[in-house]
Amino acid sequence: MSTDPSHATIDDRIDAAAESVGAAWPLHSFVTANPLAGFEDRPFHEAVGEAERILGGDGYPSVATFRRAWADGRIDPELLRAELDAHGYDTDPNASLSAMAAAASTDDPDTESAAADRVDAVVTKWLSAFLDQGQAKWPMPERERGFYDAFRAVARHDSDIPGSDAVAELPDNPVDAIRNALNGHPKDEWEEIIAFHLTALPGWTGVIKQRVADGDAWQSAYPITLRGYLAVRLALVERFDAPIAPTESSDGSGPTASDAPGVPLPGVWLTAWERSYRSALTGVIADASERLAASSDPRDGGRPDAQFVFCIDTRSEIIRRHIEAAGDYETHGYAGFFGIPMRYDGYGSDVTVDACPPIVDAAHHIDDRPATVDSPKRARYDTWSATLETVAGALDDLRSNAATAYSFVETAGAGYGVGLALRTLLPERFYDLLAATDRRTPDAHEFCAPDFDERPGDSTGLPHGLSLDERVEYAATAFELMGFEEFARVVVFAGHASRTANNPFGSALDCGACAGNPGGPSARVLATICNDDAVRAALRERGIDVPEETVFVAGEHNTTTDEVRLYDGTVPDTHTDDIRRLRADLETARAGAATERTGDMGCDVDSGVRETERRAADWAETRPEWGLAGNAGVVIGPRELTAGVDLDGRSFLHSYDWRTDPDGDALAAILTGPMVVTQWINAQYYFATVDTAVYGSGSKVTQNPVGNVGVYQGNGGDLLTGLPLQSVRSADDEPYHQPLRLSTVVHAPVDRVTAVLADHDDLAGLLDNGWLSVTVVDPEQDHHAFHYTGDLEWTPASVSAAATPASEPAAQPADD
């Protein structure tokens, strides 16, 4: 970067303007994140109003959504009237619904000039060519020079650009090009102009932001920066004679939610809806807390046959209930990367993945290492993988080669036709074929183990392996955070992943705590650590006594089919019967969970397992599963608080026992880590529901994947980085996901939570600004509930003891 002060000033203004756009991850590693993350430093109602002005997206549920929730009894009448009265609105719910409907009908759509549309179309074409990650057969030339220089070198061949020959004459430094474009405007307007152009295509800007921050292999090979992108865009603005500065019509100015004093009416309804849900959830926890205190031993002295540790994912809540009902089993919740921030390199994989949340930097590089040099299973795996790679490469060459394309169709057409018919007409049979192939082909975990040997770092400087002290620390942290005090003969760490066909958003169904990757590798790493004799000896010195007979087993929960696979290749013969019984009970649990989930999708519950298998294999299925749709709450406390309660797959469950955490360190780690990640997930689902066109990605039916980084609607335009309509809606006009901000219920002394917030200003700011809420059930204050109201203050919380979150408080329906 140049040392010219004006260059630094432009860079600073670019960074400030880019805060209005949230980072976006590529499709192959889709990470759910708050699309308004750059606005979290201001109150929620102000943030959504400002985002509406800049990005054009609605920030609140529609009147129809509120009306439906009111009619369905999801909003408590007393709580709604109290909220309306507190904010100075007419306390008649029907009158306020009519007022919201009248206000919504006066909104005017934004318009853009034809010249600006042409700029967007051309810059989009160049971005999609440059940012392609292996999908294009003929890559854009000169990419290794970076986006700005590659554009200058190649754009003269683009007939869509007026005066394209002059592009090569742009300054060598993109900052100089930006300054030249802005020189005709006062410097105090530069940031507004830059923000106008960065938010014109927020999807592409978000991908560039993330790519620069991540610095992955693609960025190293083909660098792009916001400076380079902005310089190219401004050059096109000049050539198309498009507006360089925002105007009354182009910036979306006009009445928005932020123009009204105080919280707007939709915000009041939203708060009442959230209070209604939270009241029911808090009532469950408060009642259970009181019962637990009266019982000296909630398990009556019995030791469970096995313990499971699942991700805190809302889908785990369903399978955990059914596992506990299938036998004498105990389940726990823990963030799905199992506390190990690693960059994982799978056996035979061409790429590494950061298997940890985006808010955590990978600290270790761990790869899979074959346990023995001569392994029959490894040989079979290598042979099968090589065969598939050869066949796939040959077919790809034949399809894309002009000289062989027609003969390929004639020769292979019949065989392809059979395959297409099978996948289209009998997808469940195709699933059987895939399952049979999987059973005959060894998995890498059957002959590999995580390699913890410490070696020099990788190309990015990340150290390889784990020291003994680090392994002990990760194991101890897991048990301390979850409040483990005893160990069963078998302890299963179950990551999760999904299995779908023809689904650009497949990684959105994998583990969010693993950055949109499967959680099985993380589970294997922690299980391997905990089976290590040296680690167990060190744990005993820290007061964590793992019995010699306890065996740790990794597994992976397929959230599409609810199958739980156990990686038990190293389990000793002494535990064969335990594993056999476990597998049988897991099948029972699978059947129950699949029946419940297919019922939520409106399917025949008599064939739950078969229906989930069909959805996993059907390449025409737009909704293979609901994912985390419906998420609304987080419970941080021991499982006994929610055991036996149907939370309808709407709550993240993180195990925590305040009695084993006297210093509050474990609670601080949970509140600043997993709770923040769940707030990202919740915000993504919320905004994709309230405005699928702006904050989501519209219908899957009309999407086109672009460069393995995102999707378009149709054949061009902005990159759509949010969830598709089918992930959040039952029908175009009927939300399945209830758009509520996250409600967290913590079982701990309220002073302990206050201390955590006092030490973490960013976390307190999220709460003070209303991006999520926290309610505490205090076991030291007669199990009373206290709700956080801001500035480290609490007030007694409303509690509904008569309902659970799956059957919310009854309300008087509106007179429609």
From TrEMBL:
It is found in: Cell membrane. Its cofactor is Zn(2+). InterPro entries: DabA. The keyword Metal-binding applies. Keywords: Cell membrane, Membrane, Metal-binding, Transport, Zinc. GO terms for molecular function: zinc ion binding. Part of an energy-coupled inorganic carbon pump. This is Probable inorganic carbon transporter subunit DabA. It comes from Halobellus salinus. The lineage of its organism: Archaea, Methanobacteriati, Methanobacteriota, Stenosarchaea group, Halobacteria.
